[in-house]
Structure formats: structure tokens, C-alpha cells
Design brief:
Layout: H1 10-24, E1 28-39, E2 45-50, E3 55-60, H2 64-69, E4 76-87, E5 92-105, H3 107-122, E6 139-144, H4 149-161, E7 166-171, H5 179-191, E8 199-204, H6 218-226, E9 231-235, H7 243-247, E10 250-251, H8 255-262, H9 266-299, H10 302-305, H11 307-349, H12 352-357, E11 362-364, E12 382-387, E13 390-395
Helix pairs in contact: 4-8, 5-6
């Protein structure tokens, strides 16, 4: 190398590249699908635009209000106007958006919505179909990349919270065309007799919609729904949703959140157990005190010291009841006697023998009918006169 050859610094290189790149391309319209979208409180927007093969980082300074008005979301196809710039501090080129407009729903988003709607109509996402998670699992199966950050986060948090928890990891492909098939093989593995954990977790870190597309597989959703082991999905970041999330028994926002869901914290469980034990002891002591007081009250009762007191009271009650019964019987007897006497008087008043005793007679014809009218008799007819002390045979003149 010649002594007088210039030596460039990184700053100088990036500045030169920036000048050449920004001056070589005039502002233009760019078409792409939103892969990632982050709106900051400062009002600036950072997003990624992509097509089938490539992606490009974009910035939209003070564009938050327009993004909200357009209801921009991941998967939307947009047309953005701006120019290529260089972010020298990182040595990255990016597209600086000046304005944008919606070009229509992105292809992947359309496919996502179609699959989601169809499976939901079948009832595959029905909450009543989903298996409940065990309250205190002793083993968990994890399907994820063996060397990803997601599995490290999950294991670290789960081990800290529940050292007793047995964790089995099935290494799977979590991105690309073989992702869904690899995850399904993991589900089959953990559903075999002898391999079944108490709960199953499917997880990976965040990414664009394209990166997570394998988890939108219809076949994978059906496999999750058919699992005999309850499944927790923890795919991507909090804002990422996949079809697998809807099919799972429960969705966790992140791998760390999944660990907290399936691994009850041992220290918290011990504290709760101690609290319950204390409550039980206090309840036992209170009940014991109440029982002791009740026993003392019974033991000090007059009945135990003066047994004749109870007998005397009962004897007095018996005497009172006997006297009351006698009075009631006498009142009833007098009342019934009076009623009988009145009835007897009424009966005597209507007795025919009483009338005969007062000098009256009853004439009876031969057919024993009463002759109570002259018109019922004829001259020479034989009749019988019934008197108080006998009868007379008479002839009508």
C-alpha cells in the first residue's frame, strides 16, 4: 500500500454512500405489504414493507396521525411516496416516507382472514371445546426451536417459579415452509401414550407476518384442536396473532408469559398454603373455644347439680296439664248434657203419645191409614180409635 493512499473512516464511508444513494434516486412511489409496524409516542412511525422476496425498512416521521386515520395494520398493502436515505449511524439504508395511501388488503392478510373465518364457522375456536389447563401441572412439553431465545426465556422463568416442574423440549422448525409440519410432529409426539405431559406449549419469538406464517396453517390448527393435552400458544410478540392462537386452549402474549401461566410460582404457593394453614388453625382454635364454653355452660347447669329440679319442673307441668284436661272434660260434659236435654224436649213435643195423654184420640181406618177428615169416612164404616191407654173399636153413624 502506497504511503500516500487515503485511509477512510466508517463515518466517511457511510457519508459518501449516503450522498451517492440519495442523489442518484429522486423521490418515487413504492408499493409493498406492511410486515411490521411500530408507532411511537413521539408521533414517528417505523415499519417494514415487503413483497414476495424482499423487505425494506421505512420511516415515516410525524406520520402517526395519518397511520391512525387510515387504520393501517400489519398485512395491509400500501403505496408510499418518499425517497431512499441512509441511516449513517447503523450503516443502513431505508425509505423515508412523505405520504402514503392504502392499496388494499395484503395477500397474506386476506388468506389469514379467510382461514380464520372458515374455521370459526366450523366451531373449531369454540371456548366450550377447549381443554382447561391444570391448576398445578407437574410436567410440560415445549415445542420450539432448540436454540432460540424463546426456549431460553421459557425454561429460565419456569425453573425459577417452579423448580419441581419437569420440562420436555421437542426441537422444531418455527419458520419457513416446513414449520407447520414440524410443529404437528411435535404435537403427535407429546400425545403418544407415555409421552403425555400435563400441558403443552408451542412457542417462538416475534417476527413479521411472513415469518410467522407457518402457524397460520389450517392443518396445524386442526391438530392443535384435536390434541388430548391442553395447548398454550405463545407465538411472537404481544401484538402478533396467528390461527394457532385461536385453536389453542389458551394464548400467551409472549414465551415468558406462557412460562408464568403454566408454572405456578412455588414461593407464592407456599405462602398461600401457609396462609390457609394459619386460617385453619385460627378456625380450629375459635371452634375449640366455643365448644369449651358450651361444655362449661352445660356442666354448670342446675340440672347436673340438682337433678330433682328437672323432675320437679316436669311434675308441676304434668299436674297443670292434668288439671287443664279435667276442666276441659267437665266443660265439654256440661255442654253436651245441655244439648241433649234441649234435643229431648224438642223430641217430646213432637211425640204423638204426648198428644194422646192430653185427651186426644187418633182414628185409624182398616187399612191403618189416619182418618183426619170427615170426608174420608162413610156411615157404617168400622174404625179404631187409639187412646193414651189403649184402643176402641167404633162404628161410624
Amino acid at each position: 500500500m502506497a504511503q500516500n493512499e487515503p485511509v477512510w473512516s466508517i463515518t466517511e464511508v457511510n457519508a459518501a454512500v449516503r450522498e451517492m444513494l440519495e442523489n442518484s434516486l429522486m423521490p418515487f412511489w413504492l408499493h409493498g405489504e406492511v410486515g411490521t409496524l411500530n408507532v411511537y409516542s413521539s408521533g414517528h412511525v417505523y415499519l417494514t414493507l415487503k413483497d414476495q422476496n424482499c423487505q425494506l425498512k421505512c420511516t415515516f416521521f410525524r406520520g402517526a396521525e395519518q397511520v391512525r386515520k387510515l387504520q393501517l395494520a400489519v398485512g395491509c398493502a400500501i403505496e408510499a411516496y418518499g425517497k431512499i436515505t441512509v441511516y449513517a449511524q447503523r450503516g443502513e439504508y431505508q425509505f423515508n416516507i412523505k405520504s402514503l395511501r392504502i392499496a388494499g388488503a395484503g395477500t397474506l392478510q386476506q388468506q389469514f382472514e379467510e382461514i380464520k373465518s372458515r374455521l370459526a364457522a366450523e366451531g373449531l375456536f369454540d371456548p366450550l371445546r377447549k381443554l382447561p389447563l391444570p391448576a398445578f401441572p407437574r410436567s410440560v412439553g415445549v415445542i420450539t426451536s432448540a436454540d432460540g431465545a424463546a426456549v431460553r426465556d421459557f425454561v429460565q422463568i419456569a425453573r425459577r417459579r417452579a423448580p419441581y416442574l419437569h420440562i420436555k423440549i421437542y426441537p422444531a422448525v418455527v419458520q419457513g415452509s416446513s414449520c407447520a409440519e414440524s410443529i404437528m410432529r411435535g404435537i403427535d409426539f407429546f400425545n403418544r401414550t407415555g409421552n403425555q405431559p400435563d400441558v403443552l406449549v408451542i412457542t417462538r419469538g416475534g417476527g413479521s407476518m411472513e415469518d410467522l406464517w407457518g402457524f397460520n396453517s389450517e392443518a396445524l390448527a386442526r391438530k392443535i384442536a384435536a390434541s388430548a393435552v391442553p395447548v398454550v400458544s405463545a407465538i411472537g410478540h404481544e401484538i402478533d396473532f396467528t390461527i394457532a392462537d385461536f385453536a389453542a386452549s389458551l394464548r400467551a402474549a409472549t414465551p415468558s408469559a406462557a412460562a408464568e401461566l403454566v408454572a405456578p410460582e412455588l414461593a407464592a404457593l407456599q405462602a398461600e398454603l401457609q396462609h390457609k394453614a394459619q386460617q385453619l388453625l385460627q378456625a380450629w382454635e375459635l371452634n375449640s373455644l366455643r365448644a369449651e364454653r358450651r361444655l362449661d355452660s352445660i356442666a354448670n347447669h342446675r340440672t347436673f347439680h340438682e337433678p330433682e329440679f328437672l323432675l320437679r319442673n316436669q311434675t308441676q307441668k304434668l299436674d297443670e296439664l292434668t288439671a287443664a284436661l279435667q276442666r276441659a272434660w267437665q266443660n265439654c260434659f256440661v255442654h253436651q248434657s245441655n244439648r241433649l236435654q234441649i234435643a229431648q224436649t224438642k223430641l217430646n213435643a213432637f211425640d204423638p203419645s204426648g198428644v194422646l195423654k192430653r185427651g186426644f184420640a187418633i182414628l185409624l181406618k182398616k187399612d191403618r191409614s189416619v182418618a183426619d177428615s170427615v170426608s174420608k169416612l162413610t156411615a157404617g164404616e168400622q174404625v179404631t180409635a187409639r187412646l193414651a191407654d189403649g184402643t176402641l173399636e167404633l162404628t161410624v153413624n
